[in-house]
């Protein structure tokens, strides 16, 4: 048996910096360690730098290849508290629960527990988070002090990451249990109130209610997909697969909106009812387009501050697409209001 065959994921994970930043392409250091154990490259950790590559190479008996991207020194997030609106998006994004705050209340970063992962920056709707050199790292004046500080940060980051994941899993299980309990209660209530053989008439119009309900359900599902993809692209804007999926989902949503408008116009011709729902839908679409444009502009501003030419070009392309979507939404609403 080779030496590498006896190496565990824990052995590999112990050498990683535990920033949980995802810059290696995995959602945390432990998943990256699992991928390395399966044969993935060992040079994809910018926070770990060349030192981590050398340690992994020795452990795995592989060549110490150069980093895929430039190494990064330890960082920390700082919230400009006077500008914070208390949206909690940074709290939700932090992989180590290092941000304190509540809805509509000022947030603050726990400096000693921040790993500098930068995952809180993109979700912030007012761009009030800065990434700075970690004060704890700057205070370490000797190589030994630096190594001790890195070891403490790694241990704390690993523990808080695991605790957060356990908490989220527990909350998901509790939510699922509550949903199952509600479903059982509804089923029991229906069985108790409905007599044997009794037929409960439908109050909906057979010819129109089911298609309308299906259309609304499809729109809701696709809208959820769009929001999920936009959130993922806010942290990884150069993901081509997600960009293509987002464009496809938006096109599906536009097609469903057109179908909904056609159905509304048909109902108007038959019943002479004003198309207020169509106008509301178009206003919602315009509002969503405006939000996407604002998000794209924030990503561009972030790329200009901290990214390279490729990051800026990608962000500019996102802004152009968002601008076109915004203009289309405005024109559609203007046309509908004139008619």
From TrEMBL:
UniProt keyword Signal, yes or no: no
A Pfam family matched in the record: Fer4_21
Q: What are the residue boundaries of the 4Fe-4S ferredoxin-type domain, all occurrences included?
A: 75-104, 105-134
Q: At the top level of its lineage, which domain of life is listed?
A: Bacteria
Q: Which UniProt keywords apply?
A: 4Fe-4S, Cell inner membrane, Cell membrane, Electron transport, Iron, Iron-sulfur, Membrane, Metal-binding, Repeat, Translocase, Transport
Q: Which SUPFAM superfamilies match?
A: 4Fe-4S ferredoxins
> Which residues belong to any copy of the 4Fe-4S domain?
4-62
Positions of the region Disordered? 169-215, 229-275
| MF annotations from Gene Ontology | 4 iron, 4 sulfur cluster binding; electron transfer activity; metal ion binding
> Which InterPro entries does the protein's record reference?
4Fe-4S_dom (IPR007202), 4Fe4S_Fe-S-bd (IPR017896), 4Fe4S_Fe_S_CS (IPR017900), Elect_transpt_cplx_RnfB/RsxB (IPR010207), RnfB_subfamily (IPR050294)
Comp. bias intervals (Basic and acidic residues): 169-179
Q: What PROSITE patterns does UniProt report for this protein, alphabetically?
A: 4FE4S, 4FE4S_FER_1, 4FE4S_FER_2
Q: What is this protein called?
A: Ion-translocating oxidoreductase complex subunit B
Recall the taxonomic lineage recorded for the source organism: Bacteria, Pseudomonadati, Pseudomonadota, Gammaproteobacteria, Oceanospirillales
């Amino acid at each position: 048996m080779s030496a590498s065959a006896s190496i565990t994921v824990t052995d590999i994970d112990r050498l990683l910096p535990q920033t949980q930043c995802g810059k290696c392409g995995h959602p945390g250091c432990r998943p990256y360690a699992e991928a390395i154990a399966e044969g993935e490259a060992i040079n994809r950790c910018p926070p770990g730098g060349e030192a981590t590559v050398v340690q992994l190479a020795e452990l795995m008996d592989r060549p110490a290849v150069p980093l895929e991207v430039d190494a990064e020194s330890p960082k920390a997030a700082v919230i400009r508290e006077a500008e914070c609106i208390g949206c909690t998006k940074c709290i939700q994004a932090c992989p180590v629960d290092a941000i304190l705050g509540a809805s509509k209340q000022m947030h603050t970063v726990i400096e000693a527990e921040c790993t500098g992962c930068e995952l809180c920056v993109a979700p912030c709707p007012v761009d009030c988070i800065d990434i700075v050199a970690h004060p704890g790292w700057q205070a370490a004046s000797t190589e030994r002090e630096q190594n001790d500080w890195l070891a403490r940060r790694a241990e704390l980051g690993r523990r808080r990451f695991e605790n957060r994941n356990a908490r989220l899993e527990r909350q998901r299980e509790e939510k699922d249990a509550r949903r199952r309990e509600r479903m059982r209660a509804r089923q029991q209530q229906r069985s108790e109130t409905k007599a044997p053989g009794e037929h409960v008439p439908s109050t909906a119009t057979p010819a129109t209610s089911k298609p309308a309900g299906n259309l609304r359900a499809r729109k809701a599902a696709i809208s959820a997909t769009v929001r999920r993809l936009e959130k993922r692209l806010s942290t990884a804007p150069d993901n081509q697969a997600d960009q293509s999926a987002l464009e496809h989902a938006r096109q599906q949503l536009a097609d469903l909106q057109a179908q909904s408008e056609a159905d509304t116009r048909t109902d108007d011709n038959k019943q002479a009812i004003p198309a207020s729902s169509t106008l509301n839908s178009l206003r919602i679409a315009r509002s969503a387009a405006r939000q996407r444009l604002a998000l794209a502009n924030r990503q561009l501003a972030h790329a200009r501050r901290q990214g390279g030419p490729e990051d800026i070009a990608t962000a500019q392309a996102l802004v152009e697409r968002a601008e076109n979507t915004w203009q289309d939404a405005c024109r559609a609403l203007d046309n509908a209001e004139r008619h």
